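Aggregate trends can hide what the representation actually does to any particular protein. This step matters because it turns folding into a mapping between discrete strings. For completeness, the protein is quoted in full, as a sequence line and a line of structure tokens:
=====
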Amino acid sequence: MSSTESVAFNTLSEFTLEEVQQKVYNKTIGILIGKGMSFNNDELEKIGNNMRQNVSETTIMKSIHKWLYNKKQELGIEIGTYGADYIKIKEDGTVVGSAMYEMAYHFDCEMIAVAHPNNFGSKNKYIGNNSKSLLRTDGQGWGGYKNDPSNPTGGTKTTIEFILHSKKIYLLVVSGGKTTAQELEVYKKMDNVEIIMLNLGLDSPGEIMANNLNIKMEDLVLI
């Protein structure tokens, strides 16, 4: 969405679950999960070693955006959702970045932002305005599950409560940490969710879990 801009949480209204269920009804939806934080130097070095060339975060993110764009076009995704990952502007003006914020920001459709209650009303946390409103979770953790994959929590639980009203559900996964690993276990058990995953070669918890669950991953191709 070329006109996307960053907006603070405190400027966004709140969706009800019923409003979101109606919004996604009979549509093809893409759930975006995976790499939350910006890439650190060790991760950049690891990807560079795998690619046998020096790589920058900008190059990696452009390649991820291209992969996501191609998947969106190929699968006919009409609307997306994610965990309202944000950038944060500190008091000294520096910005704490987020890879998932960037992915959602550049995902070329409306994004339903599933947000933890702690972030509502924040003046220094920003998401893209392709998220029109916020959907509140129950605040019981950020996502994943408690004790067993049949008991999803936080953002994962809230997301499942509305995606079942969709026509077709795709889970688009970009590497990811411990929460992503748990989410993969949850969604793998759902027959109506198709999992499509990008392997960044980081041996992250998400990538390790994908291998354990026999989820096929596509390798990152730099552009």
